[in-house]
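Hello, quick one for you while I still have it in my head. Could you read through the record and tell me how the tokens relate to the sequence? No rush at all, and the record is pasted right below.
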Amino acid sequence: MAVKKRDIVQQTAVLPFRRRPHDDAHAIDILLITSRETGRWVIPKGNIDEGRTPHGAAIAEALEEAGVRGRTEDRVIGHYRYHKYRTRDHWDLADVAVFAMEVTQELDDWKEKAERRRKWFPRAKAAERVGEKQLKALILNFRGDG
């Protein structure tokens, strides 16, 4: 059976980061989480609910999926695309708008804690862990300046 493309789904995400104390200005770590179904390393992302801005939805996803809060700007730092499988023979192309979040708080308990792992990686290692080429490039080029 042929795989059928459906639509382009608009999603939003945060790239959670922290600066390493006492290192150079561009030494940052990236927080990745595992996806629920496959356990792949990803960044917190999701759909944009009606009545929410992409920025607001990204902040909500960071809290729900990774249990983090932080400083963000209402400015997209990049986009990436991936194939979001719906059923065995149908998929959507998802276009994800990414916002930077400098993490200021990591909660001990959050909504999806039982379903995901979270882990900090140096920027280059985080880029190696994610599967999407455009997200890899976004992580490698990100310098922590919003």
In short: Residues 54-66 form the longest helix (13 residues). The beta strands are 4-19, 28-34, 41-42, 45-47, 68-72, 78-87, 90-106, 118-122.
